[in-house]
């Protein structure tokens, strides 16, 4: 009997799942069946988001200088404004210490007169205009000259705005893409503003045929240019921005994207299109949809960003210091200037505030993530399964209420995830599939299975229990605490004097600088098949042999250390050329038995290693400071190398917390070494032999010869000092040749 009930519920599930899956595939192939409704459902999330309300002026990393109705009333028609107004604005906010200035204004054509024409007017001023002003307007000659200068400055060409743009070096100008004469060749000065993500990356972004650039007088001296025109969805709502558009094989960034990338120090080489259809931009991973469109995470209603009136700034009514360290965007909210766009929760929203939102999103990493096809299918499958199970196991009325409860819960979850994690879960396509699955199960039950309703409920409960147990037991080893003992190799590296360096940098500079270093070093660990255990501030801990492949873990760790020093040399040269602080590091490598496995609490644990040999590896890293070396390995690691790397015996030490001494070696490198290095190693080795035999005079002679070969050699300098000490204060007869190191 039980088997029959189970079969009935299973058939309900199969019918509902089949129909729901079929609907999913159909609407996915013909997305016009649901996309418009899905967009409207997406917009509702903003309407239901209480955090959007009451945020006026809350965000101040971007300040908007707004060409508003008051500015037009004060200064007259916008079309009649001379460009020297804009020059004064840019100059004024920069005097206050603005981080960047972006004009959401299109300066496509030249403004006013040419230089020759202006010269003519200057000559006329001397001959006639000043006299006319004196006679007709009652102005004295000095006042008349000042008025004429101002008029000529206003109708003059773009020199003043260009001079301000070039002088401050942080001014951005807007351009059009998709507008203009097709095939317009690109001037040479645009090349420094474009990006290249390789053939595949460039092809991913939409190709435009027309372009309208800022006038060369302005564009050629700008910090950056970007397209400020927006591409709304078919219903006219602006929900996303294409990060780039392609024109004649060159990638041009969106206006806000360019400003944000520069603020974060993201260069062309930091960009890549990943397989997950996201754009890697330095430390950021920017989720994008078709044609590289990034969903805009709107932060609030109009004037959420700190906003001041254009005329107030021009007339000096806003202190210049108000703009210190801010990104200043200059654009319009006045109704008559045609720069208001529909967004998900507002029918009219200033275009300049859209750009401000894009800048804010990228700088703060506030991105809306839309799940991919497979996760979307799995969600639909789960909802369809729940719908089919509930409708198949419960009586129709109870099933309907239960399914409504499931869908209300799903809507709540989708809203919570949108607000807390900026995750967009679809609702329309799953609803289609769930509704189809529900109707199909009801039809199936009423036609063929109504008489067995009670058995269906029992079968449903049995099915769910079995599924949950199977899922929990699928990988039990991942849930087990503790671990196992294995011979592994551990590598520690640490930046010298990091605290001192960090005090000299701003937090943003420090994070960028450290991220560059850690990224390069981590890539080397992965390249040699190591496991990155953890970062502890500026320290890196890596383990070799814990994950496949398990063999040659000591050699791979040592090669990693050598490559890290080589790569650090390249970084140091780069940083010196950029006048950035230069990092120097110490590396310690040790091999031995360690406990490896998941360690922690039941709520949270990490796959890591522990034990005395791990601690010894950490100690070896710190000992580099004593000897002036960069890489120290233990005798246990050396035994696993089979002579494949060049080493120098350093010392026999007894570290704090251990009774038995350990012989340590400096890792020089791999392959052939220059004769001078081989001679240095030979002399140092002979000095070590004499040192062990307590022949302090002879040992000192050898170490002195090493210093002649390489002045400042840390180990030889240390042993020369020791020999001098032991000559006057010899160690006891029981001395085993070990040097006690008390510091960690």
Automatic annotation (TrEMBL):
InterPro entries per record: A/G_cyclase, Adenylyl/Guanylyl_Cyclase_3/4, CHASE2, Nucleotide_cyclase, TPR_rpt
PROSITE patterns (UniProt xref): GUANYLATE_CYCLASE_2, TPR
Name by which UniProt lists this protein: Guanylate cyclase domain-containing protein
Taxonomic lineage from the root: Bacteria, Bacteria division TA06
Organism: candidate division TA06 bacterium DG_24
GO MF annotation: an example: adenylate cyclase activity
SUPFAM superfamilies from the UniProt entry: Nucleotide cyclase
Family membership noted in the UniProt record: Belongs to the adenylyl cyclase class-3 family.
GO CC, one annotated term: cell envelope
UniProt main location, coarse: other
């Amino acid at each position: 009997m039980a088997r029959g009930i189970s079969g009935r519920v299973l058939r309900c599930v199969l019918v509902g799942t089949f129909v729901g899956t079929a609907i999913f595939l159909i609407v996915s192939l013909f997305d016009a069946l649901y996309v418009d409704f899905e967009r409207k459902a997406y917009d509702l999330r903003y309407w239901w988001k209480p955090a959007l309300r009451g945020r006026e002026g809350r965000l101040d990393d971007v300040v908007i200088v707004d060409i508003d109705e008051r500015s037009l009333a004060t200064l007259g028609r916008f079309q009649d404004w001379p460009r020297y107004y804009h020059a004064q604005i840019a100059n004024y906010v920069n005097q206050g210490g603005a981080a960047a200035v972006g004009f959401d204004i299109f300066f496509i054509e030249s403004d006013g007169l040419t230089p020759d024409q202006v010269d003519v007017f200057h000559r006329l001023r001397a001959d006639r205009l000043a006299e006319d002003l004196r006679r007709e307007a009652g102005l004295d000659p000095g006042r008349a000259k000042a008025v004429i200068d101002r008029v000529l400055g206003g109708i003059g060409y773009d020199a003043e705005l260009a001079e301000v743009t070039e002088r401050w070096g942080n001014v951005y100008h807007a351009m059009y893409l998709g507008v203009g004469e097709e095939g317009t060749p690109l001037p040479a000065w645009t090349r420094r503003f474009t990006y290249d993500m390789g053939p595949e990356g460039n092809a991913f972004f939409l190709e435009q045929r027309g372009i309208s650039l800022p006038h060369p007088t302005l564009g050629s001296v700008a910090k950056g240019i970007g397209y400020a025109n927006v591409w709304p969805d078919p219903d006219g709502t602006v929900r996303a921005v294409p990060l780039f558009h392609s024109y004649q094989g060159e990638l041009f960034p969106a206006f806000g994207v360019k400003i944000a990338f520069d603020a974060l120090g993201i260069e062309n080489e930091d960009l890549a299109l990943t397989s997950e259809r996201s754009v890697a931009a330095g430390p950021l991973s920017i989720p994008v949809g078709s044609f590289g469109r990034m969903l805009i995470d709107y932060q609030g209603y109009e004037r959420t960003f700190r906003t001041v009136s254009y005329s107030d700034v021009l007339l000096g009514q806003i202190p210049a210091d108000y703009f210190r360290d801010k990104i200043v965007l200059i654009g319009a909210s006045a109704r008559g200037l045609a720069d208001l766009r529909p967004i998900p929760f507002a029918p009219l929203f200033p275009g300049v505030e859209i750009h401000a939102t894009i800048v804010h999103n990228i700088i703060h990493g506030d991105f809306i993530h839309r799940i991919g096809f497979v996760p979307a299918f799995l969600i639909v499958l789960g909802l369809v399964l729940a719908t089919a199970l509930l409708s198949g196991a419960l009586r129709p009325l109870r099933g309907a209420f239960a399914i409504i409860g499931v869908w209300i819960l799903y809507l709540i979850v989708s809203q919570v995830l949108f607000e807390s994690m900026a995750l967009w879960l679809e609702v329309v396509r799953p609803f289609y599939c769930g509704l189809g699955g529900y109707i199909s199960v009801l039809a199936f039950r009423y036609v063929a299975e109504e008489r067995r309703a009670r058995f269906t409920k029992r079968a449903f409960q049995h099915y769910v229990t079995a599924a949950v147990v199977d899922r929990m037991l699928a990988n039990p080893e991942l849930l087990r605490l503790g671990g196992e003992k294995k011979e592994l190799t551990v590598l520690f590296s640490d930046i010298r004097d990091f605290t001192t360096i960090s005090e000299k940098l701003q937090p943003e500079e420090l994070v960028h600088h450290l991220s560059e270093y850690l990224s390069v070093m981590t890539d080397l660990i992965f390249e040699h098949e190591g496991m990155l255990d953890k970062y502890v501030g500026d320290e890196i801990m890596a383990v070799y042999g814990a994950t496949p492949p398990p063999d040659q873990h000591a050699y791979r760790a040592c090669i990693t250390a050598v490559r890290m020093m080589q790569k650090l040399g390249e970084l140091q040269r780069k940083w010196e050329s950029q006048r950035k602080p230069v990092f120097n590091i110490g590396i310690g490598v040790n091999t031995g038995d360690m406990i490896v496995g998941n360690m922690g609490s039941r709520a949270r644990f990490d796959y890591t290693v522990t034990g005395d040999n791990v601690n010894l590896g950490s100690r070896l890293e710190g000992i580099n400071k004593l000897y002036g070396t960069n890489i120290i390995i233990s005798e246990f690691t050396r035994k696993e190398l089979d002579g494949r790397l060049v080493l120098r015996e350093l010392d026999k030490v007894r570290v704090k917390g251990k009774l038995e001494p350990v012989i340590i070696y400096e890792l020089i490198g791999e392959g052939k070494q220059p004769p001078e290095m081989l001679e240095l190693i030979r002399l140092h080795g002979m000095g070590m032999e004499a040192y062990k035999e307590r022949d302090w005079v002879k040992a000192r002679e050898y170490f002195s010869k090493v210093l002649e070969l390489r002045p400042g050699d840390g180990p030889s300098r240390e042993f020369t000092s020791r020999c001098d000490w032991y000559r006057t204060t010899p160690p006891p007869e029981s001395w085993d040749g070990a040097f006690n190191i008390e510091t960690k």
